[in-house]
Amino acid sequence: MRTARLRTVHPVLWAGWAALAAGAVLCVLGWYGVSGERFAERQLPYLASCTVPGAALIVAAAVLLTQGRNALAAARVEELYGLLVTADTTEAEAPGLSPAAPLAVSGDRLMVPGGTLFHRADCPLVSGKAEALPVDAKLVRSGELGPCPICEPAEADG
Predict the structure, then answer these.
(1) Which residues contact 133 (CB under 8 A, 6 or more apart)?
(2) pLDDT of residue 35
(3) Rounded to 5°, angle at Cα 139 from 136 and 142
(4) Distance in angstroms (rounded) separating the CA atoms of residues 111 and 134
(5) Helix (H) or strand (E) holding 21
(6) Which of 63, 78, 82, 136 has its CA at a distance of 20 to 30 angstroms from the CA of residue 49?
(7) Is 78 helix (H, G, I), strand (E, B) or coil?
């Protein structure tokens, strides 16, 4: 899947690299020709025939390489989005899973020392942590602790 999309990008990148190489060769030839001439009127043909077109090719190469990289990145983002949509639909179609159901359903509330959220006991963020402590109802009522957005415990739970 990935190689089919990315093959369409490669010609732009190859054209950019070829234009860069040709532009560099023309600039070197123009410099070599200009350096061998003493008078300005004899240097102008080298500037007009080699150096200016070489510089134009280098600018064109920069544009092509940038466009090729952007197209490459766009193809990768499109591929990742396709994988995300495919994974999302297969998870939603799995039997017994409701997309709106909370991850945790326990009534016991826990908190991590120094934390700002309270969680259900079976929340994946605190389950298995030895340092998790039971939540004092005063902390919840005072607003010092907020509910976890993952397990969504209600203040009346527990």
Answers:
(1) 110, 111, 112, 113
(2) 84
(3) 145
(4) 6
(5) helix 10-35
(6) 63
(7) helix
16-41 CB burial, b ≥16 within 10 A, e <16: beebbebbeebbeebeebbeeeeeee
> For the chain, which ranges sit under pLDDT 50?
1-3, 5-6, 102, 157-158
Residues 6+ apart with CB under 8 A from 59: 23
Write down the pLDDT at residue 88. Answer: 56
What would the two tokens of residue 65 be? 């390489």
What pLDDT score was predicted for residue 87? 64
CB 92 within 8 A of CB 98: no
Tokens of 101: 């159901």
Tokens for 75, please give them. 């193809």
Residues 76-90: tens digit of each pLDDT: 888 888 887 776 555
Q: Which two tokens stand for residue 59?
A: 């600018």
Q: Do the bridges between strand 146-147 and strand 117-120 make them parallel or antiparallel, or are there none, so unpaired?
A: parallel
